[in-house]
Amino acid sequence: MKFEIFTEEENRYGRPDWFYRAIDGDTEYLVNYTHFDHRGEIAYWITGNRPLGSGPGNWDFDTSGAYETKEAAMASVGGWP
Length: 81
Prior knowledge:
Elements: E1 4-10, E2 16-24, E3 27-35, E4 42-51, E5 60-67, H1 70-76
Antiparallel strand pairs: 1-2, 2-3, 3-4, 4-5
């Protein structure tokens, strides 16, 4: 699985929210960072998925797993070598 950078919309801080996305069969996988304060500091990386083509905002996030790096988060869904 190959992750690519993409953006969907502006976040609550008024700038684009960047994600890493991969497609495997009929499922999209997402890796993104979670903000934890008003400065927009990165707290941790989480993963999510949704059926391919289901439209923006339909991500099912796994908030039980938090990762310190995007590589670790990608590896958790089989997308990092």
